[in-house]
Write a structure and sequence with these properties.
0% strand; 11 helices; mainly alpha
Length: 312
């Protein structure tokens, strides 16, 4: 029975998260993104010439620059898939994908901000101009912080001698990560479909579904998805205790959960608070990783010293 379940898990995982599936999904999403860009442009022109009227989220259909918003939304869905794809492979790469997603959300928001800019001497007194300034600075800071995170992620100080029992616990932990990743794929799919159709209905019949504000449009799907990630991260943390009880690794994994929670909280905030929460999340994750690497470096030096003493 256990062997059958294990075989079924492996088949499901391979069909949803293999390298081949990733390439297929990439091509599909890119095709949809390109098509959606032209569809959005056509809708904007139809609205501009008065052929149709859009009552919900009118600012997304009033400027051709805002058409870039739509393909970026589909690209973000692909980035979410990549996040799930890397989950069983590397925790730190999985976390870095979270940071990439939130930075791309900021970049996507910049395209919306560009379509709403008002050029005047009162730049810092106009709401949309201020939001554009915040997002511009935030995107640059995030790009730099994510680069530093990748630099720290590449550092390796220890080569552990893995015993048979240790290898078995690592194998079990990887299987658990594969189960979580496999479950997240359909969750991603249904959350994306639900969010998309809910938004479409709010545009077509705002009186029936309730008009969605532009702030909420930026959060559609991702607010729910990051809530799911927090649950997944907590489950991973609990199961990681079977894999390792090293203090610095437990603190690193716990710190990454706090970082994810801060990103989730940012969706409920606006303006400077939204920016501060996002930057704090990435800075916190980066500092946690830097300190973790210093632990690894120190332990590596101690192990090498201990090995030389035995050789002597």
């Amino acid at each position: 029975m256990i062997k059958k379940l294990s075989s079924l898990l492996q088949k499901t995982y391979t069909s949803l998260l293999s390298e081949k599936t990733k390439h297929i999904f990439e091509k599909i999403i890119l095709s949809i993104a390109i098509a959606s860009f032209f569809i959005h442009l056509i809708v904007i022109w139809l609205v501009d010439f008065g052929f149709i009227t859009i009552q919900g989220a009118p600012l997304l259909f009033s400027n051709t620059i805002s058409a870039i918003y739509t393909p970026f939304s589909f690209i973000l869905v692909y980035e979410v898939y990549l996040l799930i794809y890397y989950l069983p492979k590397s925790i730190t790469t999985y976390i870095s994908k979270q940071y990439e997603i939130i930075s791309l959300i900021i970049i996507r928001r910049l395209f919306k901000d560009l379509s709403e800019l008002t050029f005047s001497n009162n730049w810092f007194n106009i709401k949309y101009d201020l939001e554009f300034t915040y997002d511009l600075i935030t995107s640059i800071l995030l790009f730099f912080l994510i680069y530093q995170f990748y630099v720290q992620n590449k550092k390796r100080y220890r080569t552990e001698n893995i015993s048979a029992s240790k290898a078995e616990s690592i194998s079990t932990f990887i299987k658990i990560k594969k189960i979580i990743a496999t479950l997240l794929v359909p969750a991603l799919f249904f959350a994306a479909i639900y969010s998309f159709f809910h938004w479409i209905m709010s545009v077509v019949s705002p009186s029936d579904v309730g008009s969605i504000s532009l702030k909420n449009i930026n959060n559609i799907f991702f607010e729910q998805f990051f809530s799911m990630l927090i649950i997944a991260d907590v489950i991973l943390l609990l199961f990681s205790f079977f894999h390792t009880d090293e203090f610095h690794k437990v603190i690193r994994n716990s710190g990454f959960i706090i970082s994810t929670i801060l990103i989730r909280l940012s969706f409920a905030a606006t303006g400077l608070l939204n920016t501060a929460l996002i930057i704090s999340a990435v800075v916190f994750g980066l500092v946690i990783l830097i300190i973790h690497n210093q632990f690894e470096k120190k332990l590596s030096l101690q192990e090498n010293l201990h090995s030389h003493e035995h050789d002597g």
